[in-house]
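B., you asked whether I could sanity-check this one before it goes into the benchmark set. Here's the sequence:
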Amino acid sequence: MVVIGKIVESFSPSADGFGFMWVILAVGGIAAAISVERFLYIVMKSGKGRKEFMANLSQLLKGDKLAEATSYAQNKTIPLAKCIYAVLKSRDKGEKGMSDALDEVFLTEAPRITRYMNLIVVCANVATLTGLLGTIYGLIAAFDAVANKPAAERPTALANGISVAMGTTFLGLVVAIPLLVVNGYLTLQATRLVEEMEEKSLKVMHIL
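And here's what the prediction gave me:
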């Protein structure tokens, strides 16, 4: 509780180094918003229902119901369905036509899945480095207090400098570590989706 209280006090304009704290908080807020948007798109919108879609599509293909399979894929909004629909609707154009249609859709959908991911890592690094910058600032203030302040003022000035140094480092790591974990999870899910899009679409193309 004492640590939390000190962190909260560090956001006050009257506190030394408060600017570093607000920068870290702002960066963390931006990264959190990006993470939520990416989670909703990758996990909820693009990833949900893939197994059910492939199971139903396989049944239609096994029954040689190509028209129904094409219509079924067309009515789905997940990227995997869009890629397979591109293959199915181009089945009369031969392997070259199906491959070109798949490439066109894949090159549109894959970047939509992976975009903004690097920004989460950038924000995590900025938070860490801003915390480190605040640490350097606080240490400089502490050493300056030892060297130049009157004896009566040194303890308070030294404590303030150390507080800035530790507080900014602490907040920077508190923001950066969860962001890196979230980025790792989202990157794993995005990579899996992109690989599955290519794999399943090629399998359908080879079946046709």
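One thing to flag: The helical segments are 2-9, 18-46, 50-62, 66-74, 79-89, 94-114, 117-148, 154-207. Otherwise nothing jumped out at me.
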